[in-house]
Amino acid sequence: MLTKNQTEILSRTRVKICGITRPQDAQVAAELGTDAIGLVFYQQSPRAVSIEQAQAIIDVLPPFITVVGLFVNAKPQFIQQILDKIPLDALQFHGEESPAECCRFNKPYIKALRMQPGVDIHAFIEDYASAQAILLDSYMKGVKGGTGATFDWQQVPPHLSKPIILAGGLTPENITEAVRILHPYAVDISGGVESAKGVKDAAKIAAFMKRVSISMPKKINYTNLPDDNGHFGQYGGIFVAETLIKPLEELKQAYEHYLKDSSFLAEFNDDLHHFVGRPSPLYHAVRWSKQLGGAQIYLKREDLNHTGAHKINNAIGQALLAKRMGKNRIIAETGAGQHGVAAATVAARFGMECVIYMGSEDIERQKINVYRMRLLGAEVRAVESGSKTLKDALNEAMRDWVTHIDNTFYIIGTVAGPHPYPAMVRDFQTVIGRETRQQIKVLAGCLPDALIACVGGGSNAIGLFYPFLDDKSITMYGVEAAGEGLDTGKHAAPLCTSQPGVLHGNRTYLMSDQDGQVLQTHSISAGLDYPGVGPEHAWLKDVGRVQYVAATDEEALKAFHDLTRTEGIIPALESSHALAYCKKVAPMLDKDKIIIVNLSGRGDKDIHTVAAYEGIEI
Ligand SMILES: *Cc1c(COP(=O)(O)O)cnc(C)c1O
Q1: Distance of CA 14 from the midpoint of ligand 1 (Å)
Q2: Contact, 384 vs 361, CB < 8 A?
Q3: Three-state secondary structure along 140-160?
């Protein structure tokens, strides 16, 4: 028996070319590597073949190619008569045949399901338990047999208990996306590789076969991105005004140079140790693990860092880079103030001038953090434009950067922004995952089975995940903020609910309306309240390496209390989202399995929010 891991590496999507009517087409399909061909025995179809035609086609096929006969509500005698004359390997039923009618011929069979709105695939699979595979085709009123149209592939639930064959409107152009979304057992193509009805086209078959094979998951290298232009697949890149291209190029050169420079790295590590307090512990939450009754839970204690969260790792890295680049002025934008505090902290540490842009609405809401930044010597500039919140502060910071490029370094706080920020912030935050890897090997003698982290912009999550991405046995969960619920519109979960768009200088998943306007977000935790997400996460979602899920305000609050009471650790509300999802995963795993949760920050900053939410006056 293969492990799940092995099947993932080995399994490739098979190809069935259906509706072959000429021996020469069968030969070409075979030479180009098809796994199966389909012969249509449905008289109304333009691709129907007679027994003689079918025999001529089978005669030219090499061994090892499966021949499937396709029927639509045919009489049993008709099917039997064909089976008596020609050696079909399997039958495919495309009409309303009952399970009993499908199995009466003692042949392996495939049952087609039309994807009408509201179909229950699980129930269908249960009904046709005797089928070898289920073929999913699109539904068109009045059309029997293949329809030639596509359906919404996202509507197919994952992890079905039978092999799935995807059909319906496949072409060389759309096959890559189809395989990427569904990873089907096989794909079935007919019209998409024809030059005329029933006449297959060698060039189209070749293009199709090639695209299927390059869509295979086994080719993915998870740690060699972004490319030189900052792309993670179709995400990332540089979407900024012309004036910012040169400063970004200069930054990229410096970052690429200094991340290989041993004296820079020594200084960075020294500050992480003496100023931040690293390495942060990896803590076995024994009591909480017992309470949940499943896997052993370990917490990566980023809450114990100086300033109380992981953001300082990146702020130190960028400030040191600013110093090396000869820039003595730091600017940053902040929403809730946490990144502003981190930037103001490192500016004080290195004796740099510091300006923080903050929407005037946010300044009103976050008085304590504003005061903290001022104590640290930063100037907090109120932004009065637009909605007076984070995205307006961001525009203002960009404008400042362009006009003061000679002496100013712009510190971005998460794995967002234009290239090279997403890669650079990730690289500074991977200290989390690198430490964790060493620590768990010492503590448990093995690698973990699952990693869980909350995702706002995604910097603490990628910092933990990145050094483990190539360990395919590890399941990873990125937890977004579901706010009041994913279907209420009041959340901050772009990966779970939205489509790609452009925000903050990069292409990524983005909460926006039909006109591309960025939507209002909501989360009980200020640090997750962001309408976009780092482009690398967008890519990791699409290639299926990381599973993106969500936890509601209420679930996060419950987990906040659980950890506080059971372990004596008050977690940040952001981190509580990761803990909430851990509560779902842990009980499903055996006691010898290991889950590591990134405790991205401490919750002292959140106790007023918690009290207010619960109607308690302090
Ligand atoms: C800012 C913040 C986050 C969210 O940011 P990411 O870039 O997604 O990590 C999470 N946890 C804490 C404690 C934060 O301060």
Answers
A1: 42
A2: no
A3: CCCCCCCCCCCCCHHHCCCCC
The pLDDT, as a whole number, for residue 2 is 47
Give the pair of three-digit tokens for residue 261.
């420079």
The residue among 298, 302, 279 whose CA lies nearest residue 444 is: 298
Q: What is the pLDDT of residues 294-329, one digit of tens each?
A: 999 999 999 999 999 999 999 999 999 999 999 999
Which one of 97, 194, 302, 333 is the catalytic residue? 333
Bridge-based pairing of strands 450-454 and 594-599 is: parallel
| DSSP-assigned states of every residue in 523-534 | -SSGGG--S---
The CA distance from 283 to 455, in Å, is 21
Determine the residue of 300, 301, 314, 338 to mutate for testing ligand 1's pocket, defined as the one with the most ligand atoms within 8 A of the Cβ atom: 338
Residue type, position 393, single letter:
A
Structure tokens at 6: 């092995």
Minimal-distance CA residue to ligand 1 atom 14? 527
φ and ψ of 310, to 5 deg? -75, -15
Mean pLDDT, range 367-393, rounded to an integer: 92
| pLDDT tens digits along 496-539 | 999 999 999 999 999 998 888 889 899 999 899 889 999 999 99
Site to probe by mutation for ligand 1, drawn from 432, 525, 574 as the one with most ligand atoms within 8 Å of Cβ, is 574
Mean pLDDT is lowest, of 117-121, 132-136, 245-249, for: 117-121
Give the other-Cβ count within 10 Å of 202's Cβ.
16
Q: Report pLDDT for 472.
A: 87
126 pLDDT higher than 70: yes
Beta partners for residue 356, in sequence order: 332, 380
User: Is 126 among the catalytic positions?
Assistant: no
Q: How far is the CA of 428 from the centre of ligand 1 (A)?
A: 14
What is the pLDDT at residue 321?
98
- Strands across the sheet containing 379-383: 379-383, 353-359, 329-333, 408-410
Structure tokens, 275:
């100023």
Q: Ligand 1 center to residue 135 CA distance, Å?
A: 43
Q: Is 480 a catalytic residue?
A: no
| 58: three-class secondary structure by DSSP | helix
Active site residue 333: yes
